[in-house]
C-alpha cells in the first residue's frame, strides 16, 4: 500500500507537470506568440532583417544617397553623399535606425500587410526575400553639398526650404558622422562631447536673441509705425542686468538707425527704444502669431528637445525681465527648422507651409516614380501686406550688409543675428532668395559657439554664389 500511494503521487505530479507544459505551449503558440517573436533578442528577427533588400534613397534629381549593396559578408548599407549623412541617417542591425532611414522605414524595408494568398505563399512558404521601395526626397544635392562645404566643419545647422510648398531642399547638422563606418565608430561617437547624433536643425532649442527683432519689426509694420523714423543712440550697448550686455553684431559709426538698419546690423538699442513707443506691444502679445508655442516640425523625425535655461534672473526687476524677453534673451526658444518656416512664410506672403521631405516612391516591381507629396498643411502667420513689407525690409537689410548686389543677382533679403545661451554665443544668417528656377527659397544658417562675424559673412557670400548659379 505504501508503494502504491507513492506511485499515485508520482503519477499525479507527472500529469500536473504535463498539463502545465501543455498550457504553457498553448499560450506561447496562440496568445503569446507575437510577444515572443517581437523580442529584440529573437535571432529569427535579426536573420530576417539581414536578408531584407532595403530600398534606395535618392534626392529630387534622382541622385543616389543610400543603397543596399552585396558584400562578402552579405548585404550592407552604403551611403554615397557625405553632405547628407545627418539627414539621411543610418541603418544598422546592431544600433537601429535614424534620420530618413527611420522616418521612412516601412517603405524602405517593404513592411506591408499580406495582400493575397499568393503574397502569403511567396513570403511565408517560399521565403522569398523582403524587398523595399526606393524613395525620393526633396533634398537637392547641388544645394546641400556646397552649403555643407561653406560651413567648413563648424558646429551648427543649415536649412533651405521651398517657401511655396515647404519642401526641404537642404538640411544639415554639424558635426555629423559617417554611417558607412557606424559599427566601428559607435563607441567614440556616442561619447563624443560635440554630440554628432544630435540633429541641431530639428532638435536644437535656442534662445532667439536678435531674431526677436524680426518679430518686433512685423508688429511695427502691422501697427502702422513709420519705418523711416531714426532712433538716436541706436548703436549703443543695452544693459540686460546681472552682467549681461547686448550690442551690435556689426559695428557701426552711425548713431542713428531705422529699425530696418538695426535689423541688418543686429543692433538692439533701436528695438529697445521702439518698445517705449505707443505703437509697441508687450513681447508676449507679439509672439502668438509666430507659433513658437507650437513649432513646425518634420514628421517622423526627432522633435525639439526641452531645455532648461541657466537662470540669473532672480535679482532682476520686472522691467529688466521684460527687456530680456523683448530682445530675445528671455525664456523663449526656437528650433532652426521653425525659424526657417517663419522666414519661408514671409517670402510666401505670410503663409507658412508644413515642412516635408518625401516626394516620390518607386515600388520594387516598377521603374516609374510615383509622386508622394500630400497637400501640405499651412498656417497663416502674417497678412500678405505685412509679409510683403517685411520682404522689402529684409532686402534693404541684406543690401546694407553686403552692399549693392550685381544687376543679375537674385533678389535676396536677409539679416544677421546673435543669441546667447549660457556662456555660448550663436550667430544666425536668415533670409530668402528668389530664383528663376526655384521661386522663393528660405534659408537659416546657425553657427554655434562663435562670435566670428567674418565667418558668417563668408557663408553669406557662398550662399549668394550657390543661388546665383541656379538663375
Can you count the beta strands?
19
Supply Rg. Answer: 28 Å
Helix percent band:
25-40%
Largest sheet: 6 strands, mixed
Termini gap:
104 Å
CATH architecture of the domain at 143-358 and 376-468: 3-Layer(aba) Sandwich
Q: Which strands sit side by side, in order, in the main sheet?
A: 3-2-1-6-14-15
Q: In the CATH hierarchy, what is the superfamily of the domain at 143-358 and 376-468?
A: DD-peptidase/beta-lactamase superfamily
Q: What fold name goes in the CATH topology slot of the domain at 143-358 and 376-468?
A: Beta-lactamase
Average pLDDT taken over every residue:
86
Overall morphology? elongated
Number of helices in the DSSP assignment: 18
Which blocks of ≥5 consecutive residues have pLDDT under 50?
Answer: 42-47
CATH C-level class of the domain at 143-358 and 376-468? Alpha Beta
Structural class: alpha+beta
What would your notes on this structure say?
By secondary structure, the protein is of the alpha+beta class. The chain has a domain at 143-358 and 376-468: Beta-lactamase (3-Layer(aba) Sandwich), CATH 3.40.710. The protein is 37% helix and 20% strand. It contains 18 helices and 19 strands. The strands form 6 sheets. It has a 6-stranded mixed sheet, with no helix packed on it. A 5-stranded antiparallel sheet has the order 8-7-19-18-17, sandwiched between helices. The protein has a two-stranded antiparallel sheet with strand order 4-5. Helix 8 packs antiparallel against helix 18 (453-468) and helix 11 packs across helix 17 (384-402).
